Amino acid sequence: MNIMRKKNLLTSTVMRSIETIERKRISSFQKIHTVSVFIFFTIFSVSLFLLISTLHTQGTLDTLSIFMEDLEIIRESIFDVLFIITAELPPVFVLSTAVILLCAAGILISSKKTRTIIKQKESDIRKYFQIQDKK
How far is 67 from 77, CA to CA, in rounded Å? Predict the structure, then answer.
């Protein structure tokens, strides 16, 4: 009986240290992931704001006033207005916004597997200690 008690104590001690290590790894991953998504979102928002303010300064957004007219005018000129807006867009802002958006999407997609593994590890650790508490 004494050997079983020592074995359980050793197993519990090992699991506590594994829990501590895993919680630190999970915490650092979550912090890095959150900060990187926040940075990309902020850069994307600033880039989008600069793009819209440039269009407003150039007067390109004034072409949208045509849509306050009759529905028939909208049907006839929608593609002309969209062509004018896309022709007036500054290529540097459009390219940088697209790259930033793709990088953010890449981070989210590439970290999906890691986030799934982390959720499973947290669940396993929680289940183990719930079982141990019942004993």
Answer: 9
Question: Of 101, 86, 85, 87, whose CA–CA distance to 48 is shortest?
Answer: 101
pTM, 2 dp: 0.58
Domain ranges across the chain: 20-128
The amino acid at 69: E
Could you tell me which residues come within 8 angstroms of residue 67 by beta carbon, excluding any fewer than 6 positions away?
Answer: 74, 81
Q: From CA 11, how far away is CA 30, in angstroms rounded? A: 28
Give 10-residue mean pLDDT values along the chain (135 residues): 63 78 84 86 85 79 67 74 77 82 84 85 78 65
- SS3 label, residue 43: helix
